[in-house]
């Protein structure tokens, strides 16, 4: 079985959240969706589980933080072009998300924008042109899509 990630997010309104994620390009996997959860697929390796608050609470006794007031994680997705980054962010806005809650980035070799889903979860979106990375710098190993650089 390939390595995969399942990001679990607590959501206040499952139907609204499912519609939002479909609008930005995720696909629902009904095999792992029901009245308490929706499995939203980004790629073969990346799945987002949207969980109603009451269902979320069956997994942990920790409080669900208000993601509009605090942030514990910023999730990041890679894209094939600057246009793809702009398109997903614009779709997020049209679907009820907040645009660019974090600063836009345009470093020449890397471009990034972000959105918040209706519950306040932050999604960064980035395109990186590896052929244009400045000499002597490479993306840090396992740095994800945040564009962290290290000197070589």
Would you mind describing this structure in some detail?
InterPro entries: Glyas_Bleomycin-R_OHBP_Dase, Glyoxy/Ble-like_N, VOC_core. Pfam families: Ble-like_N. The chain has 152 residues and is α+β, with helices and mostly antiparallel strands. The protein has two domains: 1-58, 2,3-Dihydroxybiphenyl 1,2-Dioxygenase, domain 1 (Roll); 72-145, 2,3-Dihydroxybiphenyl 1,2-Dioxygenase, domain 1. Helix content is 18%, strand content 34%. It has helices spanning 14-24, 53-56, 82-94; strands spanning 5-11, 27-29, 37-41, 46-52, 74-78, 98-99, 105-106, 110-116, 122-128, 137-139, 149-151. Strands 5, 6, 7, 8 and 9 form a five-stranded mixed beta sheet that branches. The protein has a four-stranded mixed beta sheet with strand order 1-4-3-2. Strand 3 (37-41) and strand 4 form a beta hairpin. The longest helix is centred in the middle third of the chain and has 13 residues, at 82-94. Mean pLDDT is 90; it is low at 141-152.
Topology:
Blueprint: E1 5-11, H1 14-24, E2 27-29, E3 37-41, E4 46-52, H2 53-56, E5 74-78, H3 82-94, E6 98-99, E7 105-106, E8 110-116, E9 122-128, E10 137-139, E11 149-151
Parallel strand pairs: 1-4, 5-9
Antiparallel strand pairs: 2-3, 3-4, 6-8, 7-8, 8-9, 10-11
Domain VOC: 3-128
Region (Disordered): 132-152
Protein name: VOC family protein
Labels describing this entry:
single chain; 152 residues; 2 domains; disordered C terminus; 2,3-Dihydroxybiphenyl 1,2-Dioxygenase, domain 1; 5-stranded mixed beta sheet; alpha+beta; 34% strand; 4-stranded mixed beta sheet
